[in-house]
Amino acid sequence: MKRQISNLINSGLNPIGLQLDRFRDPVDPGNSYMSDERMRESLVVQLAGLAMEELASVFKSGKTTEESMKDDVRVFLELFKECPIGQNSGGSGFHNLFWIYMSARVCRPDLIVESGIWRGKATWFLERACPDAEIHAFDINLGYIDKRNYKRVKFVESDWWSYGVSVEQGQSALAFFDCHISHMLRISQAHERGFTRVLLDDDLPVEKLYVDGSPPVPTANMIVNGYSGDSKIECVHRGNIMNLDLGTKGDRETLASLVDTYRTFASVAELSGYGGYTRLSALTLL
């Protein structure tokens, strides 16, 4: 019966270029996992090993041990089952959430700023990764947030730069930008406000800018890897032409000189079977 109803609806939608498709939640630890504890532990060991390698290369943390990393992975996988924010299309999936949570656990910041929060799923994981941190979450539209899911997060409906939050002397901090605003601008702002550890989503190389409908150009990838081509470029995303301003070579080089370490996180899909968008990067600033 459901199929017949769907076919009937599509018979009316197809002539105008529309299609009704069945939506299925993505496979993640909240709905798909091995029942055997030994097999689950094998995944924990593999993810912890990858996290040790990736995070040590960018954050240079000497305090994290192999056992503590395994503990963090175990907790993360369990949190997925508890998270009240379900389907998160357009927001962070397993890949991003894993690296955001593990980065926060390694950095242990006193202050967290998140810009571009959508439905607040990454915010929820950040709060659980750093229960004692001061967290400021910014978006120009907070209409998708259920504040009852958070205990201490301060939500602000504005651009983060206009709010004025800065890192105080002696304070450890982490900034996460997922707002589709130029990475060059956000990195410069973060540096000016005293942030030295930054996470950046949608960090596409120049030859893949067509993947995103609003790429944050110039991206950190372009800045760090010394893109020296045209300052303006055209690409097509889902049939729509985008004319993108990539900034000047001089500005990109100036910002690149502030970067100490940089890494685009490795995909966790092959190890875990769980997916999600895979263009999250981390960098530290001098």
Give descriptors for this structure.
seven-stranded mixed beta sheet, globular, alpha/beta, two-stranded antiparallel ribbon, 37% helix, 286 residues
Quick rundown:
This protein is an alpha/beta fold.
Characterization of this structure:
The chain has 10 helices and 9 strands. It has 286 residues and is of the alpha/beta class. The chain has a single domain (35-285), classed as 3-Layer(aba) Sandwich (Rossmann fold), CATH 3.40.50. The strands form 2 sheets. The chain has a 7-stranded mixed sheet, with helices on both faces. The chain has a two-stranded antiparallel ribbon with strand order 6-7. Helix 2 (37-59) crosses helix 3. The model has no long low-confidence stretch (mean pLDDT 90).
CATH superfamily: Vaccinia Virus protein VP39
Architecture in CATH?
3-Layer(aba) Sandwich
Number of helices: 10
Structural shape? globular
Largest sheet: 7 strands, mixed
Provide the fold topology.
Elements: H1 2-13, H2 37-59, H3 66-82, H4 94-107, E1 111-115, H5 121-129, E2 134-138, E3 154-156, H6 160-163, E4 173-177, H7 183-192, E5 197-200, H8 220-224, E6 232-237, E7 240-245, H9 249-256, E8 259-264, H10 269-272, E9 281-285
Parallel strand pairs: 1-2, 1-4, 2-3, 4-5
Antiparallel strand pairs: 5-9, 6-7, 8-9
